Amino acid sequence: MGKDVTIQGKDGNFSAYLATPAVGGGPGIVVIQEIFGVNAVMRSVADGLAARGFFALAPDLFWRLSPNVQLGDKTKADWDKAFDLMNRFDPAKGVEDIQATITHLRKTRGTNGKVGAVGYCLGGMLAYLTATRTDCDAAVGYYGVNIQTMLDEAENLKKPLMLHIAGKDQFVPQAAQAKIVEGLKANPLATTHIYPEMDHAFARDGGEHYDKACADLANSRTATFLRQHLS
After folding, report:
1. Active site residues
2. Count of CB atoms situated within 10 Å of the CB of 107
């Protein structure tokens, strides 16, 4: 079971959900939210990472717009609010908050000083930017949106990046997927995995497009990748 903590950011303080291992120390992981905020799904992801021995910290990246948002994916009202928040969200400010979260984790008692990031949807795109703009040690993005418009930043990759791409993602057309793969294939720090029959959010447990087999495969790849680069 985790707890809410406060992070000191560049523009002010904001909340985050921290899940810690039951015993021993380990690496830190920034869990980067979907458009629904630091909700039950993101907290469950953090709890799962803590069970694997990570210190998982999920920052509230919408705090400037509406603090402590916890939306679901079952009602039109929640979807409308989520898209409104996403459309008003400033990714550059979000990355600044992620850097503050990384810094906070490095100083958290019990961590080994290494910090990675795992993001989903909006967070998948932010995980990519985290890999290019922050001092994180490794980053993983699930079905990130609009990465194809930011491929010029790939030259700034200094630490390993893994992207999980849904082959039938309704928010990332196949042409965009191909552009991402092509744009990163020559970079030795970047790894891409495509799940051909999957739609967006295939790893969101309980979501409309959740697929246990592919989610388990992606999560296994993520765990191995993070262990390799954060131990």
Report:
1. 169, 200
2. 9
